[in-house]
Amino acid sequence: MSRWWFLSAAFVLWIVSGLALVRLPADERIRSRSDQVPPRIVSMAPNLTEILFALGLGERVVGVTQDSDYPAAAASKPRVGTFWQPGVEAVIALRPDLVVTLAFEQQQEFSRRLGRMGYSRLMVNIETITGLFDAIVAVGKAAGASGQAEMLCANMRTEINQIRSATASNQPVKVLWVVQREPLRVAGRDTFVNEMIELAGGENAIGPTLHKYPPVGAEQVIAARPEVIIEPAMLPSVLDQQRRQALEYWNRFANVPAVTTGRIHVIDGDTVSRLSPRLPAGIRTIARCLRPDSFGE
Amino acid sequence: MTTVIQIEEVSFGYGSQRPVLSHISVGVPRGVFLAVVGANGVGKSTLLRIMSGLLRPRSGQVLLEGRELYSYGIRGIAQRIAVVRQEFVPAFGFSVLETVLMARTPGYGPLGFESKEDRALATKALEMTDTARFASRPLGALSAGERQRVFIARALAQNTPILLLDEPTSFLDLKHQVAIYDLLKSTQQQAGTTIVAVTHDLNLAAQYCDEALLLYPSAGEPKADAGLAANHRLGSVSEVLTPPEIQRAFGVQVFSGRIGRARFVMPLGARAKDADFSGRSG
Amino acid sequence: MHPPLTSRILLVRTAVAAMLLVAVMLACALIGPQDISLKSALGMTQSNAAPTPDHEILVRVRIPRVLLAAMVGAALAASGVVFQALLRNPLADPYILGVSSGAGLGAMIAVVGGLSWTLWGRSPIAVFAFAGALGTVWLVWGIGRITGRYQVTGLLLAGVVVNAFFSAMIMFLVSIAKSHQLYATLFWLMGNMTEEDFFVLWVGGGCITAGIIALFFLGPQLNIISVGHEDAQSIGVPVARIELAAFAVSAFITAVAVSLSGLVGFVGLIVPHAVRLLFGPDHRQLLPLSSLAGAMFLVIADTVARMVVAPAQLPVGVVTAMIGGPFFLLLLIRYSKRVYWPT
User: Fold this and answer.
1) Touching B: which chains, 3+ CB pairs < 8 A?
2) Do both A144 and A183 map to the same domain?
3) Cis peptide upstream of residue A39 (ω within 30 degrees of 0)
4) Partners of A41 in the beta sheet?
5) Looking at residue A182, which CATH number applies to its domain?
6) What is the pairing mode between strands B254-258 and B232-236?
7) What is the 3-state secondary structure (H, E, C) of A48-98?
């Protein structure tokens, strides 16, 4: 029996001494280096990279994730893992003064880990267009580029308003936004894509759903009666192939207005699959699909 | 002669089934070699388990050395009673010596290792059962008879004054059956151990045991319904293992013959060669 | 066959294993997706200038991960030993009684419900996985006690039923979850080592070490119980009490391990087997040696997981299966003469 008492006592002692000994504050030496204008910034998402470059901070960006492909200058920056699997060692090796992440679970956790190690970090939530503008302002503030941030937002807003005013008077076009064909998944009303569609003068053919990107069945497609079907392609290299496959696939939906009028568009997914400073270009692309006469080409 | 285990008015049933034992009272004298016999399902194993404290009776009490059995605690009972069940091959490959040493476990020191005395007892037990030469072999590599001897050795290593065995020779060949009974008898004679063994072999019981407890099929019926004075018979083997008693307990007629100091019984059915001798004595 | 264990043999073997473990941990701390030099890492600790990235990586990332892997590996191996003994089944592992589905359910609930309670800076997934694992084991134990006349069968059946039910609930939650939540949970569940801060490591390590020592104290009784529990009682071991204690402690350290690192499979099943093949079934030896072997195994597996597709990272559970399977096969072939399988 005595050995059990001994073990319990030792265990309690261990925990208590842990409370005393190991609760060390984060490394102060690193913090002191981050002043108003952080010279070394790491971006953990492609749209964050775009924002940083758009704010003119391209030179101060020292690390980006593997999928940061825009602008071209970003492609030559050191890689710090991917959007889904951030590489903590790579980030540390770059000695960043500021690490910018998005706010979803995986990156939140990563941001927390870096914070525990004493790094300065900024977490922004870019799930809506409003969120995008807030993020641009936040990044500008943290990086000492508030002026540029304001200017960027103003420019973007002006462009978007231009597109809106050109389409506002007409009846919204019903759009089905297809993110995956087999099984069929579409963008629902609670997505940023939906916001872009509405700004481009369209309306989501699918009504409100539980999921953001719900799987739908053929019945719902037919009942929705979309006038235009848009499929973003993930890689520009497969654009043609996807177009052919799309036409083959949609032909079986003979009753759908979009199919009978042949308004099935497979577009380059680059500007429409993430919220970034290229948002106006993305909205314009969509508007072109919806009203080809108004927007030319 | 004092009674070392006393069972008083004990009743037991598994779950809600009809009781297996009903109001049984039995006293086991000290130092005796007692055989427990009876038909299948009559409650022999159950009685043994109740004696060893593994099962609790629904009513009645069990006394060990005059005290309530359960008051001793699991460890206390284990210091006085050792149980041997039918041999089996366990899931993990312990050696013979390791298995026998396990009997000493409750007395281990703080780091859980056996003392020299523990080892000496285990070695002695191995020698008594003639299993010392297998000491480092895994149990699974032995024959059934050898394994049964190892389980007996483990019980002996427990160093208890009482030994309970449940059909220790059921599946063994002749040579091993005899070896085990010789071993048990010598243990009783040299160490004064009280031995209670459930067995189906009436003849070996007659040759080796002093007393026999015969359980009738009515052992589970309440006394009032039975219409019989008792549900068991306890006495010396020559009193108990007689044709009329065997007929009553097993429903079988036997021929009873005398060898020297003990008798033997030969069950004879209607189509046996000597069927006309059944029910007679010689 | 193995000669019976003496305290001297055990001490020697444990000491050798411990030294081997330390060596492995040090070596693996120097391996990672970034090349670091030991000189640079140790050089800047005294001066006032900021520490070099090498030092940061070594101290903040590598060492915590290696410590974590060692802890989790030890916990899983030790509780694997105990579950195999209690269930008298060499194929048992720490997850057999619902820990995996309980942890998974806890994690899914945390993510889908958007719950954000943290404990000592650990993520809500970890906290809820811990609660889920522990709660499930308690549930299974309770059901097993009520329904099982023969203790072991009752427990196993209860475990199967609970596993099935919880898996169905997990599937339901998966179907209504958002995609990025799903990915995060799945990845976490597949088992991976991330660096934790030292306080969490301190507490976790303390719990696991205390648990393993407690199980070691139960070693001799576990020997007997693994042979048969009626036998154990006749020998004088309070079977029900010991089983409950061993079960509770193993479940606890498994839950701690799962909350630290997700579900890492294979360690709890294979390491006890391998150690048993090499050194025999005596639990007084199995427990310390399996713990140390499990720690070594997981540290190495984690290092491989980090390096093999660098800079990406494999879930460590994939690596444990891929290393563990063939290794065990080899061991089995070489030592099969020493094994006697009951017919």
Assistant:
1) C
2) no
3) no
4) A61, A98
5) 3.40.50.1980
6) unpaired
7) HHHHHHHCCCHHHEEEECCCCCCCHHHHHCCECECCCCECHHHHHHCCCCE
Contacts of B17 (CB under 8 A, 6+ apart): none
Percent of chain A with pLDDT over 90: 30
Any domain includes A242: yes
Asked if residue A146 and residue A211 are part of one domain, the reply reads no
Instruction: State the residue for tokens 């040493």.
Output: B101
- Report CA-CA distances (Å) from C154 to B71, B139, B194, B207: 29, 27, 37, 44
Measure CB to CB from residue C180 to each of A11, A15, A105 and give the nearest one: A105
Q: How far apart are CA C156 and CA B249, in angstroms?
A: 41
Q: B30-41 burial, b for 16+ CB within 10 Å, e for fewer?
A: ebbbbbbbbbee
For residue C7, what is the nearest residue in chain B, using CA coordinates? B113
Asked if the peptide bond before residue C3 counts as cis, ω within 30 degrees of 0, the response is no
> Is the residue at A11 inside a domain?
no
Task: State whether residue A81 sits within 8 Å of chain C by CB.
Answer: yes
Do A86 and A53 lie in one domain? The reply is yes
**pLDDT tens sequence across C187-230:** 777 888 877 778 888 989 999 999 999 999 999 999 998 888 78
**Interface touch B90/C236, C-beta < 8 Å:** no
The reply to whether A195 and A241 lie within a common domain is yes
A5 falls within a domain: no
Q: How far is CA C234 from CA B112, B169, C89, C91, C282, in A?
A: 19, 20, 21, 27, 20
Task: Report helix, strand or coil for C277.
Answer: helix
Residues A140 and A191 in one domain: no
Q: Are B210 and B33 in contact (CB under 8 A)?
A: yes
Structure tokens at A60: 């101060």
| Mean pLDDT score, B219-248 | 74
C300: its two tokens: 């190495």
- Of A154, A181, A210, the last residue of a domain is A154
Residue carrying structure tokens 């038909």: B39
Q: Which of A154, A188, A210 is the last residue of a domain?
A: A154
Is position A260 within any domain? Answer: yes
Check whether residue A287 and residue A196 sit in a common domain. Answer: yes
Instruction: Write down the number of H helices and E strands in chain C.
Output: 15, 0
Q: Which of A21, A30, A117 sits opposite C50 (nearest CB)?
A: A30
Q: Is the pLDDT of residue A27 over 70?
A: no
So what's the ipTM on this one? 0.82
Of A11, A19, A92, the CB nearest to C56: A92
Give the integer Cα–Cα distance in Å for C118 and C129: 12
Q: Please indicate whether, in this complex, the C-beta atoms of C313 and A84 are within 8 angstroms of each other.
A: no
- Per residue in C246-260, pLDDT (tens digit) is 988 998 999 999 888
**List of residues 6+ apart from A185 with CB closer than 8 A:** A178, A179, A213, A214, A215, A216
How far is it, in rounded angstroms, from Cα C14 to Cα C18?
A: 6
Structure tokens at A253: 């939906």
- CB-hemisphere CA count at 13 Å for B145? 12
pLDDT in tens, B99-114: 999 999 888 877 788 8
Residue A81, domain extent: 41-154
- With vertex at residue C337, the alpha carbon angle to CA C331 and CA C343, rounded to the nearest 5 degrees, is 105
Domains (ranges, CATH) in chain C? Answer: 53-338 (1.10.3470.10)
| Domains: count for chain A | 2
User: Does residue A204 share a domain with residue A114?
Assistant: no
Q: Are both A188 and A225 inside the same structural domain?
A: yes
Peptide bond into A277 cis (omega under 30): no
Beta strand B59-64 with B67-68 is: antiparallel
> Cα separation of B129 and A226, whole Å?
90
How is residue C40 written in tokens? 């640079």
